[in-house]
Amino acid sequence: MHARVFRGTPANLVRLARALQRGELVAVPTETVYGLAANALSPRACEAIFQAKGRPSNDPLIVHIHRLAQLDALAHRNAAVGPLARAFWPGPLTLVLPKKAVVPGIVTSGLPSVAIRMPAHRVFRALLKLCGLPLAAPSANPFGYVSPTSPAHVLDGLGTKIRHILDGGPASIGLESTILDIRDPRRPAILRPGAISAADIGRVLGVRVRSPARKNTGAGVAADGPVCNPLGCKPGATGAMPASASPAAIAPGMLTKHYSPRLPLTLHKSLTLAQALALPRDEAALLLRRPRRAAPDNVFWLSEAGGLDEAARNLFAKLRALDVPSPRRKRLHVALAPGRSALALAINDRLTRAAAKR
């Protein structure tokens, strides 16, 4: 089997909608990252997602819908859903709600809640409408590896495991959605940071929204993956997450180690060009912004001017491009994003998990 990439033409969308209706897998573009989609109401189709990705059964899936009426068939609505949907859907916000019996247990890892999102990507929305199904779709990559933001990334990781990839161009945001737990609308809590902030949500709901624990926001790093002063500590070990039988997480993207390149990764609170120049030549530096003077060939950057929108959009693609363990490159040093904005927290969450030990 080898995947074929389909342009988003009307004929191809019909073809891929029929494939989904038959229970097949289709890699799909979203504004966040590329997802691996299957009929969310079919346990067999969803099982194929887990098999293709090597994903452990304790990591639930997000269900994607085309219109709000579909949510009512999948989950128990509460007073928070309407205002949040009006404010943020279609868009990069996932809501965790009590599920209805129609949602298979494999989708929710046996939990009584389900994560639901209405994506904004035009091509994916057209496919959702055509197939008429809610689609479960985690990131379209081998489990635990850096998320894909282009069809080429999907081909690289799953090209021999799936048959269909829908090309919708590069992801415009580049980081996974904000996940919000609103099972109790009086106590909303962000489970995974993304482009939509706790403050954005709080203004809509008129209540305080809890943010993730500080150790997963970049203000600090989990105990097994410490933030380093430049050149000042050893990095965490790398390696794929094992398919453990630990208790299910309430939402995806909450494992300590995730989004991880094969190359050892060291995080820094800040990393200047001068500090990068002091690194050994077989170690690379990934800066937030392009240096103002010429840099050697082991120094890279996420943004021309240091903008977090551009940095977020480029983060996963750059980590993949630099993930070439060899005698020439043995380690990657990355600076955390400054500040407490939604994108800074999301970037630092992904970097923290990417650098964590198993």
TrEMBL record:
What is a single cellular component term in the Gene Ontology annotation?
cytoplasm
User: Is Cytoplasm there in the keyword field?
Assistant: yes
Keyword Membrane in annotation? no
Which parts of the sequence belong to the YrdC-like domain? Answer: 10-196
Q: Which residues cross the membrane?
A: none
Sorted UniProt keywords: ATP-binding, Cytoplasm, Nucleotide-binding, Nucleotidyltransferase, Transferase, tRNA processing
Identify the residues that bind L-threonine.
Answer: T32, H64, R117, A137, S177
Top-rank taxon of the source lineage equals: Bacteria
> Catalyzes what?
L-threonine + hydrogencarbonate + ATP = L-threonylcarbamoyladenylate + diphosphate + H2O
Question: Where does this protein reside within or beyond the cell?
Answer: Cytoplasm
Query: Which residues of the sequence carry a binding annotation for ATP?
Result: R55, S139, S147, R192, Y259
Molecular function terms from GO: ATP binding; double-stranded RNA binding; L-threonylcarbamoyladenylate synthase; tRNA binding
Q: What is its EC number?
A: 2.7.7.87
**Xref: Pfam families:** Sua5_C, Sua5_yciO_yrdC
Q: Which GO terms describe its biological process?
A: regulation of translational fidelity; tRNA processing
Q: What does this protein do?
A: Required for the formation of a threonylcarbamoyl group on adenosine at position 37 (t(6)A37) in tRNAs that read codons beginning with adenine.
Q: What NCBIfam families does this protein's entry cite?
A: L-threonylcarbamoyladenylate synthase
Q: Which family does it belong to?
A: Belongs to the SUA5 family.
Please report the name of this protein according to its UniProt entry: Threonylcarbamoyl-AMP synthase
